[in-house]
Amino acid sequence: MQQFTLDIIQQISRIPAGKVATYGQIAAMAGNHRGARQVSRVLHTCTQKYQLPWHRVIGAAGKISISKDQPGYQKQKKKLQSEGIEFGLGDTIDLSIFQWQGQAQ
DNA sequence: CACATGACGAGGG
DNA sequence: ACCCTCGCCATGT
């Protein structure tokens, strides 16, 4: 496993409840602003093992990146709402309000 | 080593 | 706003 991947895991585990981060943001904080796809890979493979708050990671448009017909969609939405995050029309989250401002933002 | 795969992102039509 | 294409890069086969 690469350092970049470990950094991704670390950044995701840092996201506080009530806030969200985008794939690109996580990738950038992990040192590679073009590693968004690796972030998704980490969520797909390491959530169990590292107990990551996977639900706090959303797409750059402020929307959940899972397709709506999959079970994880509602599951994620519910978790976020229970943490105080609000969804607007089209299930869009207002990043200007809920996006996590990490260290080097 | 070559090729395919993604819970992505930005840009263009 | 919707759809498509292309760029990206760690991983898996």
Beta-strand percent range = under 5%
Structural class: mainly alpha
Number of strands: 2
Q: How many individual helices?
A: 5
Overall mean confidence score, pLDDT: 95
Uncertain regions spanning at least 5 consecutive residues: none
State the share of residues found in helices, binned by percent: 40-55%
Give a structural overview:
- By secondary structure, the protein is mainly α.
- Helices cover 48% and strands 4% of the residues.
- It is built from five helices and two strands; from the N terminus they run αβααβαα.
- It has a two-stranded parallel sheet with strand order 1-2.
- The radius of gyration is 13 Å and the shape is globular.
- The model has no long low-confidence stretch (mean pLDDT 95).
- The structure holds a DNA duplex (13 and 13 nucleotides).
Task: State the gist of this model.
The protein is mainly alpha-helical.
Sequence-ordered SSE layout with sheet pairings:
Elements: H1 3-14, E1 21-22, H2 23-29, H3 36-50, E2 57-58, H4 71-82, H5 95-98
Parallel strand pairs: 1-2
Helix pairs in contact: 1-3, 2-3
The chain binds a DNA duplex (13 and 13 nucleotides) through helix 2, helix 3 and strand 2.
